Amino acid sequence: MPPTAWHSTEDLDEFLTRAGDFLRSRPDLHTVVLTVTEGLRTRGLHAYGDEAPLFGLLEEDGSVRGAYFRTPPYRLYLTPLAPARADSLAAHLAGLGHTVPGVSAEAATAEGFAEAWRRRTGAEVAPYQRQRLYRLDTLTQPEPVPQGRPRIAGEADRELLARWFREFVRDIGESENDSVRAESWADARLSYGGVTLWEAPDGTPVSMAGLTPPVAGQIRVAPVYTPAGLRGRGYAGAATAEVSRLARERGADEVLLFTDLANPTSNGLYQRIGYRPVADFAVYDFQGQSSS
């Protein structure tokens, strides 16, 4: 085996066996890979789409230095990579004849891979979103606390959760036409108490905040959603503070969340709750590529 090599596989167990220690070495920066692969492990390989997921890892002198996954039809997701490694991954995937619809990764990694993919395939690169990863420091309840109370969603809330998940996905600009996926998401979250609802005093749910399952000592807050007509009343902040407390209660060493940097309201809110920046991430879309 050469000292440096990318390896691709559709075998999730093989990927986790070989890359697991590397992924657990930085559970904050690798949170998405850890949580998505945990979802695939527990919900099945088609939890995110009909096509088989693809996984890959970079080995240098016998040690894993990078990893990626893709759950079609969604974008490629990368762990942080130096520019030369991002370029070698672009060469590897192009050589396999893969079409990549976009990339999501730590900001410099995403930019480096996008440029390498453009050079190798002629793809047009379009910036989609800038994100910031935050880690919870000292939890602070946002003031004023809205009227009402939190409660963990139960089976009777399944239809509401699925509907709000579809609305959330539309709000962030992603296409979500698959009702089965929304229902599968709701079922998975209900199985471990993974969604907290904020209720108005009359018992009406007005906002939700979710938690990923604990993996490698980290839990990520996702998603946070309030219907459009109920925003600006403090419900999302109260729900987020409650699930952040719950994540700590469930033993998380690191409680994480992502924000859209184009939304100063949410970035300010999470910092008031006690979240501190870890790293910036970026998302790019690709069009017109010729690798397939």
Class by SSE composition: alpha+beta
How many helices does DSSP assign?
8
Radius of gyration: 19 Å
The SSE string, one letter per element, is EHHEEEHEHEEHHEEEHEHE
| Major pleated sheet | 12 strands, mixed
Helical content, roughly? 25-40%
Beta fraction:
25-35%
Sheet with most strands: strand arrangement: 1-2-3-4-5-12-6-11-10-9-8-7
Number of strands: 12
Shape: globular
In the predicted model, the low-confidence regions spanning at least 5 consecutive residues are none
Q: What integer is the average pLDDT?
A: 94
> Span between N and C termini?
27 Å
Keywords: Acyltransferase, Transferase
Protein name: GNAT family N-acetyltransferase
GO molecular function, one term: acyltransferase activity
EC number: 2.3.1.-
Q: Helices, strands, pairings?
A:
Elements (H helix, E strand, L loop, with lengths): L3 E6 L2 H14 L5 H13 L10 E7 L2 E8 L5 E3 L4 H13 L6 E5 H15 L2 E13 L12 E4 L5 H14 L7 H12 L4 E5 L5 E7 L6 E8 L9 H15 L4 E7 L3 H10 L1 E13 L5
Parallel strand pairs: 4-5, 10-11
Antiparallel strand pairs: 1-2, 2-3, 3-4, 5-12, 6-11, 6-12, 7-8, 8-9, 9-10
